[in-house]
Amino acid sequence: MKPFAYDEIGYWSEVKLDIVRKYASAYSTIMSAQPTIIRKHIYIDAFAGAGRHVSRRTGEFVPGSPLNALEVAPPFSEIHLIDLHGGKVAELRRQIGSRQDVFIYEGDANKVLLDTVFPRCRYEDFNRALCLLDPYALNVDWSVLQTAGQTGSIEIFYNFMIMDANMNVLWRNPDNVAPAQAVRMDKAWGDHSWRGAAYVGKQTLWGDTVDEKARNEAIAEGFRKRLEEVAEFKYVPRPVPMRNEKGAVIYYLFFASPNKTGARIVEDIFNTYRIRGIA
Q1: pTM value?
Q2: Which of 56, 146, 166, 278 could disulfide-pair with 231, CB 3.0 to 4.6 Å?
Q3: Taking a C-beta distance cutoff of 8 angstroms, is the pair 30, 23 a contact?
């Protein structure tokens, strides 16, 4: 049998793993210290992958977010791991083995989250959750983000895939975009208002107005405001741009929370990378 082929990841993906790992540790410590008001604190990874990766820089294995979550102390009450790829799910099961506190699902993360996992995270049940949404493309439906925000009990890290949006939707002439791609953006953004964030009217020398594509930062800020105003997360710090080896922004790493303390901790972690000049 051929050995399982793990995904290769670049430096920026390792940075993301480090950010999530640091916050997951702080989060679990805070939640575990409040047993009288919090019954369970839950970790969710909606695009869990095979559990580990291969570093493109070193060629060595790198623990993925599921394995990092398993090492957090004090431990999470429950860990829920989802992936659409059957081979990755099988490898994840092989690595983790049989544990009563770990639940692994093969399927569409949007459906599994809404139907099965988020109902276990209800505020009125004194449960709380940290959810990582780490897709490879614009695969997270807005309904997932809005549901998480309106629970008042779920914090999220979310990769908003700006490179996918730029390549397939946010063209210089939006009228040339394939209808299916525009629909995909509608699902990720929640409605068609992304056009107002992605394009600004510019007056030409002849006095008419044409749409001009906005900068990535403006689009990310538009999405940040939606997380606050529409999804109803109380705290959404400015996201961190994550890049490829050529320096182009692939996605923005967002954090959104109902909790001021969590937002402050993540903002400090984000700022550490900003100050180091890598973000």
Answers
A1: 0.93
A2: 146
A3: no
Q: Where are the beta strands (DSSP E) in the chain?
A: 8-9, 40-45, 52-55, 61-63, 78-83, 102-106, 127-133, 154-160, 199-203, 209-213, 240-243, 249-256
Beta pairing partners, 82: 105
Q: 8-163+215-275 domain in CATH 3.40.50.150?
A: yes
Whole-angstrom distance, CA of residue 122 vs CA of residue 253:
25
Show me where the domains of the chain are located.
8-163+215-275
